């Protein structure tokens, strides 16, 4: 079983997602031009769902430890992230100028699934080589 401290990055990531989701549509619109200076092709924050839930998927995998390196662990990782995404969409229904969107939940799941697949592939590759890093 993973040590409890390993869950801290996932909790911090969930907290960051919650804080960002608490911003009103007006607040996000005021931040967008600033972000576009670094990402000129960005027209809205929808792609950030992939990024946020990719990072969440990595942190959940870290918390899971060795279990993340299985198909069952991958499924559990994605399920945790999608369930959190579902609560996040529900939370947004109470934020001014924000609304829940099923497509956001799909993007959340894709980001988490990609992270989980990368972790699975990484662990499989390093385990085949007899790496000491497979823990």
UniProtKB/TrEMBL annotation:
It holds the Pfam family VanZ. The keyword Transmembrane applies. Keywords: Membrane, Transmembrane, Transmembrane helix. The keyword Transmembrane helix applies. This is VanZ family protein. InterPro entries: VanZ-like. It comes from the Bacteria. Residues 45-122 form the VanZ-like domain. The lineage of its organism: Bacteria, Bacillati, Bacillota, Bacilli, Bacillales. The chain crosses the membrane at residues 48-64, 69-86, 106-126.
């Amino acid at each position: 079983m993973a040590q409890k401290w390993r869950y801290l990055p996932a909790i911090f990531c969930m907290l960051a997602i919650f804080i960002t989701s608490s911003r009103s549509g007006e607040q996000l619109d005021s931040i967008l031009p600033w972000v576009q200076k670094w990402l000129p092709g960005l027209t809205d924050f929808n792609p950030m769902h992939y990024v946020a839930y990719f990072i969440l998927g990595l942190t959940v995998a870290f918390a899971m430890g060795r279990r993340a390196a299985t198909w069952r662990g991958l499924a559990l990782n994605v399920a945790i992230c999608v369930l959190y995404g579902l609560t996040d969409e529900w939370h947004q229904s109470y934020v001014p100028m924000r609304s829940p969107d099923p497509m956001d939940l799909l993007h959340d799941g894709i980001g988490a699934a990609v992270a989980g697949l990368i972790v699975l592939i990484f662990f499989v590759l390093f385990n085949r080589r007899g790496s000491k890093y497979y823990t």
